[in-house]
Design a protein that fits this description.
By secondary structure, the chain is of the alpha/beta class. The protein is built from twelve helices and 14 strands. It has helices at residues 6-21, 40-56, 89-102, 129-137, 148-157, 185-198, 214-228, 256-265, 286-303, 323-332, 360-368, 379-383, and strands at residues 27-29, 32-35, 64-67, 124-126, 159-161, 175-179, 203-207, 235-236, 251-253, 276-279, 309-313, 335-339, 354-357, 373-376. The strands form four sheets. A five-stranded parallel beta sheet has the order 12-11-10-13-14, sandwiched between helices. α7 (214-228) links the parallel β7 and β8. α2 crosses α3 (89-102). The longest helix has 18 residues, at 286-303. Bound molecules: FE3-S4 cluster. FE3-S4 cluster binds next to α11.
Length: 389
């Protein structure tokens, strides 16, 4: 019979070794682990067998634990008329069942902070880069960008190594970056991309005229920034809870021309020529889904055209009583809700070739990982509507 402590010992041992390599001063207790890299497309059979072995050795999570989107929609109905065969569905569900057996919450989302809001200065072990940046920079919690297996092991051990962003003095911004005010989530994502490219140290971002773009833009900035930077933390002056004070004279200015040049990089096709518009990278919530549906309805009434809009939403939504009603209501309006997945982690080439998206992160990965033609655009631009119009 398996010794129930086996998995715990393995987890602690690996974390200790990683920490030692990084010069950590021991362990730090965590209150939430979020595992990424659990899509079967990414980890394959070796990953599945690794998780299976942990479960056989008695793995149980010791803290609140969630996991990232997976490689297939958890409800296939919204994409049914594409008539595409998914491969490895069984293996993907096997991984999910193993995680649940360990005590993970059935989450399948990259916005774990909606399931449990991080508190300032509490320690986490999160693996999804966009969520890590939000936890650090919006909530003021402490987490490094962990590899998928490490976050999983931290969930089992209840601790992680005490290094990097777990130490307050390592979190101070070292460079000031002045940026123009983003008008929408696409501009915010482009700024996240540019700041990551230009600032090699943790930046304090000062937005000219103040950051008046809300959490949607913060999320878009964080997702793009974390995709391109080795840092998993930034400060947006006036929004982030931590101080944006930078010692010394280290300063960069980003202007609107650079933002336009960055937009060109993610503009392989015209927005009128795409197969689909994707929003929901990172995932969006129910209220935002209704906003998308309303916009599509308005455009249909005006232009009498057919639109194709995909939306990434948390996987646990499929367990909600309202799911089927909302899913079908959206589908009747040409809005397909992808529960617990997203085109970046799916085998998206089986469905489409050209994608417009309001997410710079999604545009980058769809272009590089899946070799799709992409276009960054707001949903309103895709629908031919004016913002707030
Ligand atoms: Fe989430 Fe997929 Fe984007 S996992 S952050 S929607 S690439």
């Amino acid at each position: 019979m398996a010794n129930v402590n086996d998995a715990y010992d393995i987890a602690l041992n690996v974390i200790e070794r990683v920490g030692r390599a990084l010069g950590a001063s021991g362990f730090v207790s965590i209150s939430h682990a979020h595992a990424s890299g659990i899509s079967y497309n990414n980890i394959g059979r070796p990953g599945l067998e690794f998780i299976e072995e942990l479960v056989e050795k008695g793995a149980r999570v010791r803290v609140f634990a969630t996991f990232n989107p997976v490689g297939v929609p958890l409800d296939p109905r919204p994409l049914i008329d594409y008539d595409v065969e998914y491969s490895e569905v069984e293996e993907q569900h096997r991984i999910i069942n193993l995680l649940i057996k360990m005590g993970f919450h059935f989450s399948a989302t990259c916005i774990p902070y909606i399931l449990r809001r991080p508190k300032p200065k509490e320690h986490l072990a999160w693996g999804e880069s966009s969520a890590v940046a939000i936890a650090n920079s919006f909530f003021g919690a402490y987490t490094n960008k962990e590899g998928g297996p490490l976050a999983l092991l931290a969930a089992i051990a209840g601790v992680t190594y005490n290094a990097g962003l777990h130490i307050a003095t390592n979190r101070k911004p070292k460079i000031q970056v002045i940026v123009p005010r983003p008008e929408n989530e696409v501009d915010a994502g482009l700024l996240g991309y540019l700041v990551a490219q230009k600032a090699s140290e943790i930046p304090a971002v000062q937005c000219l005229g103040g950051w008046r773009c809300g959490f949607t833009c913060f999320k878009a900035f964080a997702a793009a920034y974390a995709s391109f930077s080795h840092n998993a933390h930034f400060v947006i002056v006036g929004v982030s809870p931590e101080s944006g004070k930078v010692e010394g004279d280290n300063k960069i200015v980003i202007d609107e021309e650079e933002v336009e040049m960055a937009r060109e990089k993610f503009s392989d096709v015209n927005v009128e020529d795409v197969d689909v518009f994707y929003t929901g990278c990172p995932h969006i919530t129910l209220g935002e889904v209704f906003r998308v549906i309303r916009l599509v309805e308005r455009a249909k009434t005006i232009y009498r055209k057919k639109y194709e809009v995909w939306v990434g939403v948390p996987g646990y939504y499929i367990l909600r009583r309202w799911w089927v009603k909302v899913r079908d209501y959206a589908m009747r309006r040409g809005v397909r809700l992808l529960a617990g997945t997203c085109p970046v982690v799916m085998d998206v080439r089986k469905f489409v070739d050209r994608v417009a998206t309001d997410s710079v992160k999604a545009a980058f990965y769809l272009k590089v990982r899946h070799r799709l033609n992409v276009k960054v655009s707001t949903l309103e631009q895709y629908l031919g509507l004016k913002r707030n119009g």
